[in-house]
Amino acid sequence: MKKISIQYRILFFVIITLALTFLSLKAKSGFNTGEEGLKITKWENFYTGDNIHFYYLSPQNENLLKIKATYKLQKVIEPKADELDNSIRIMKYLNGKVKAGSTSMTSDKNALEIMEVAFGGTKISDSDYAIMYEECLAAIGINVRRGVLRSNDKKTSGKSYFNVCEIWSDKYNKWVMIDGVNGCYMTDSGIPLGTVEIVDKGIEAVKIIDVKSSSKYIKNMSSYYESYSISVDNNKYGELKSNSKLTFLKNKKLPIIETKEGFIQPTIFVNNPQVFKESPKKQYVNNGTEKVPTLIFAKRDLKNDTKEIQNFTVGAFMNSYMLSNYFIKVNGGDYIKVDTYFDLQIISGTNSIKLSQDGKTLDREVIIEK
Questions:
Q1: What is the pLDDT of residue 309?
Q2: Which of 19, 89, 194, 251 could bridge 175 with an S-S bond, Cβ 3.0-4.6 Å?
Q3: Do residues 366 and 295 make contact, with C-beta atoms less than 8 angstroms apart?
Q4: What is the DSSP letter of 109?
Q5: What's the rounded Cα separation, in Å, for the pair 299 and 18?
Q6: How far is CA 360 from the centre of its chain?
Q7: CA 269 centroid distance within chain
Q8: What is the C-alpha to C-alpha distance for residues 57 and 142, in angstroms, rounded to an integer?
Q9: pLDDT under 50 in the chain at which residues?
Q10: Which distant-in-sequence residues (6+ apart) come within 8 Å of 167 by Cβ?
Q11: Strand, coil or helix: 196
């Protein structure tokens, strides 16, 4: 147990270090136009396990208790209703009080601050709406997580991402997506769907509930349903455990680490949806069964980049912690032993990054074109 505890500390420290560099990255960089930048052409680096410890908001947090009391949320819900029904009640309550849209600017406010300005008549972004909705749901005891849908096309107009929430339904024993901004959720054969199910099926193949025009929704929103990201640590008011993201892609889709808005946060990519389906009520046990680590890339501060070189920090994740000893080969060179993480320079042209646990056997390979 002591060893696992130390490994967790290493994971949290490294991922926090990696993610903090992300905060300075803005779309104004010359490398973030649709015409230039990085493109992944090979990604033999998909995470295939289900050994990730997720963290969620507690309804006993003082901020959530204040939201519940200030906005009298207990009067909005029906005590005997299930989680989905009460989530819809909260959504309709909020949508009767606030206006939100994807074109509004995102703030850096917390939920209480967002609700104060939104209830005062100021239109808010989908990101701010999702934060507000997430905390209102958590305040009434519903397990909830906020996620990001993303378009893979840099040339589309508008921003490349859109925020939704998922709630855990005991009735259906699954996660269910709710697009609060558009006031809808989706089903297949009468069963509410989670976001990865919708991404996998495609929104053209599911039933959209509570929208006036499904065809209009599909036209406006289909480009976003290409990938879905959630945070490993959704408990924003607790001690930070991880800044890493988990992103689901359809089979044969390649990850994108540079978007119209800039570089993404450190991310574990998967194309198997199982890890997204784990119940938040299941007690986490680190089973230690994973045998192959997964590379995680984090963009470093842009100030040291040039037109020819971009700098990253890279680590290797396995069994819910960062490996402290492994080997990396870059662009055909020799395997180099790494202690936890290493600095990577992406140069103009083709960049090959290979990972090995023993310095001989290839475990992972990623190719990035610049």
A1: 94
A2: 194
A3: yes
A4: -
A5: 8
A6: 33
A7: 10
A8: 9
A9: 1-10, 12-14, 16-35
A10: 83, 84, 87, 137, 142, 143, 144, 175, 176, 178
A11: helix
pLDDT at 33: 36
How far, CA to CA in Å, does 134 sit from each of 16, 93, 126, 128?
23, 14, 12, 10
CB contact burial 103-135 (16+ within 10 A = b; e otherwise): ebebeebebeebbeebeeeeebbbbbbbbbbbb
CA distance 194 to 291: 29
How high is the pLDDT of residue 36?
56
Q: What is the pLDDT of residue 242?
A: 86
Whether pTM exceeds 0.85: yes
List Cα–Cα distances, 114 to 17, 184, 215, in angstroms.
28, 21, 31
Residue for token pair 């490993």: 232
Q: What is the pLDDT of residue 155?
A: 65
Distance CA 98, CA 75 (A): 18
Two structure tokens written together for 304: 């040291």
